[in-house]
Amino acid sequence: xxxxxxxxxxxxxxxxxxxLSCAASGSIFxxxxxxxxxxxxxxxxxxVATITSGGSTNYADSVKGRFTISRDNAKKxxxxxxxxxxxxxxxxxxxAAAPTTTRLDRGSWxxxxxxxxxx
Length: 119
Description:
There is one protein chain. With about 120 residues, the chain is mainly β. About 0% of the residues lie in helices and about 55% in strands. The chain contains no helices and eleven strands. Strands 2, 4, 5, 6, 9, 10 and 11 form a seven-stranded mixed beta sheet that branches. A four-stranded antiparallel beta sheet has the order 1-3-8-7, with no helix packed on it. A hairpin with a 4-residue loop joins strand 7 (about 65-70) and strand 8. It is globular. The termini are far apart.
């Protein structure tokens, strides 16, 4: 079992920045991929960014150039630096972990952290 705890959400004005953190614990030896999803009210869940144990990253087109995913292996933590935030970035952001990126949606999930961007 892998436990994930997100933090760093909050309220920010459009154009501002936030950094989300996701700390992993438990059976993390099986984890080679982690990522961030988000879900806004009335919208489908969206995969925002992923990072592998080798450091490869991928981003949704909607956040490319604004968001950066990174990891600190010593702290067993991944981060999502969000810059130039827009009201449409408002959502609950979830951290996920799995053996591969293709299995993230079926892997371990955190409880979510709310990000609200005001116009």
